[in-house]
Please model this.
Amino acid sequence: MECHSDSAVRMPLRSAAGVLTVPALAAPVFAPGRVAAEEVTWPVSGIVKPLPAEWFVPHDTNAEMRWEALRDADGKATIGRHVPTERFFVRNHTGTPLIDPDRWRLRLFGSGLRGAPTAEQAVEFGLADLRTLPATRIDAVIECAGNGRSYYRSQQHQSVPGTPWTLGGIGSASWRGVRLAEVLRAAGLTDGAVDLLPVGLDPDYVVGGVNYGPVRRPLPVAKALEDVLLAYEMNDEPLTPDHGAPARLVVPGWVGIASIKWVGGIEVADHPLRSPWNTDFYRMFGPDYPPGGGAPLSTQVVKSAFELAAGAVLEAGRDHRLHGRSWSGTAPVSRVEVSTDGGRSWRPAALCEEPLADNWTRWSIDWCPERPGPYELRARATDRLGGTQPERAPFNREGYLFGAVVVHPVAVV
Ligand code: MTE
Model:
């Protein structure tokens, strides 16, 4: 879990007469919507796809993308705007479930639907049903709320628990599926609906002896109707197990936890909903926030990364083209500045493409370091709403939303 240092324990599920049973340390959490255990088998390992060391840094149940893998040894780009699925980062609270797409059903129920169906009388959609609804494609990044967390410690000397991501807890893909709005309307959405609770079919999240139940996080209906996708394809292929097959949410601009994978049920309610993922986790806690925590996290902050290893070695006295990417959860990027002298002076980077909302923008800048020695590179992006990267990220106890300029050391020889 993002905000706990303990590693999670995966709990196998058994289904008895349609009832979810969890052999747990603590009592199983009631999770309407996750009543589909017979469609799911559990993996032996946490992540199914291979994780070659040149592409990924493993972190417990997660795998971080290496930014330097976006270029080959000659500095040529190995990937374009989208990260190929096999190279996309993985953030799993527990492990990847294997779900039979032919038996999988999405079940919608609750007081926000016409007739207020219960979980047992849910409105159901199979994959074939979803494919009869109008299909839409969106290009968007998914980024973990904790992306960049390790810099709280290394740059700000602040201790925070959780996965020590550098900047590789992000990936951009082309997602295809049906707008969640279409599915909700087809299920009988009422004007009184305010919150949704999508529930994942992955194993219960158990940490520190507490069973928090399946991964599930309330999502306001207003956001769902605006731009959320129920995706069944990623980069023109059916979703793969690690990325949510057979269907997941893609919630543009928001912290990655909103994009629930392996979604099995969605409660639609005429009142605000709660789960540990919007009460205990994925909120800001600490001295600068109210005692109960700040509002549940939603949009991502502005960030930038170089397509270069930390500590990369560059030759003195020749031109280097530095490449990177910048992004923001609120608006397209408008400019990127780079410093090669420890933040004393800044030069504008050239944007390589038209910046898009909900996606990263690639950029480059030339640099000819004359003298050998250690150098610090910095990249600072600003978005069209004026959001920019500060020198320091405001501290929060769990180390979310590290948006400060990252110091990128290189050696010139
Ligand atoms: N959905 C479920 N069911 N279980 C999870 O562990 N992790 C969330 C989100 N959806 C998660 C989930 C988090 S924190 C992130 S950042 C994204 O999935 C990561 O998506 P990816 O693994 O496809 O990169």
About this structure: The chain has five helices and 27 strands. The two ends are 41 Å apart (CA to CA). The chain has a mean pLDDT of 91.
